[in-house]
Amino acid sequence: MEELKQRILRDGKVRGNNEVLKVDSFLNHQMDVAFLQAIGQEFRERFAHCPIDRILTIEASGIGIACLSALAFDKIPVLFAKKNKTKNIAGDVYISQVESFTQGKRPYNIFVSKEFLRPGERVLLIDDFLANGSALSALIDIVHQAGAEVVGAGIVIEKAFQPGGDLIRSKGVRVESLARIKAMSEETGVVFCD
Ligand code: G4P
Questions:
Q1: C or N: which end of the chain has fewer Cβ atoms within 10 Å?
Q2: Ligand 1 site, residue 22, Cβ cutoff 6 A
């Protein structure tokens, strides 16, 4: 998505030992809603002709993107996996573990109420970043636990130099990433795959 690549080049900042792309001015802290709407439209076009019953994402950053995408998909419901099992999500839940590759961070569980994910449903996964693929793997696991089907994954930014894209595609899941980063550094900036 050309508009996204231009926005990353203009507003993105490479940080954290060249491992983190900060896009919090428009994507995952402050949110440019009109731009997120365009992102939703792009996902709609890429998954045109795929019947989809539900969008599944993970809190927190995926939620806004998933909601605006849902509007483009004729207002299908958005479900997000929670990172804490609060009282509000008591009862029957699907649970999966997200491995963590970030130093100092522990693996954690995510939860989805069984009430909102049914066998046979066709589910589109949406998230802001695909890096190591651990969050997406856990979402796929939950869809499978429910006896539902993964239609594909819509990712805003794939860090193609990290293993997540290969991992998820090797599971047979169609991954549509709107921008794929080949390399990045504070000195040279961001280089896209295509
Ligand atoms: P994964 O999402 O592919 O599993 O990747 P990983 O475990 O490596 O990433 C851990 C968290 O860091 C995820 O957010 C992911 O979206 C985010 N992340 C990974 N790479 C980048 C990056 O280059 N820039 C930014 N801004 N974020 C990155 P999370 O733990 O789910 O938190 P949340 O932000 O959704 O609340």
A1: C
A2: yes
Nearest atom (ligand 1) to Cα of 135: 4
Sheet strands (E) in 9-121: 13-15, 20-22, 54-58, 78-81, 93-98, 108-113
CA angle 185, 25, 184 (to 5 degrees): 10
Verify whether ligand 1 is closer than 6 Å to residue 13 (CB atom): no
- Asked if residue 103 has pLDDT above 70, the reply is no
Q: Is the CB of 60 under 6 A from ligand 1?
A: yes
The mean pLDDT value for 127-134 works out to 97
Taking 90 as the threshold, does the pLDDT of residue 140 lie above it? yes
Does ligand 1 come within 6 angstroms of the Cβ of 135? Answer: yes
Atom of ligand 1 at shortest range from CA of 130: 3
Task: Using DSSP, state whether 123 is helix, strand or coil.
Answer: strand
Q: What pTM does this model have?
A: 0.96
Separation of alpha carbons 129 and 69, rounded Å: 15
Confidence of residue 105 (pLDDT cuts 50, 70, 90): confident
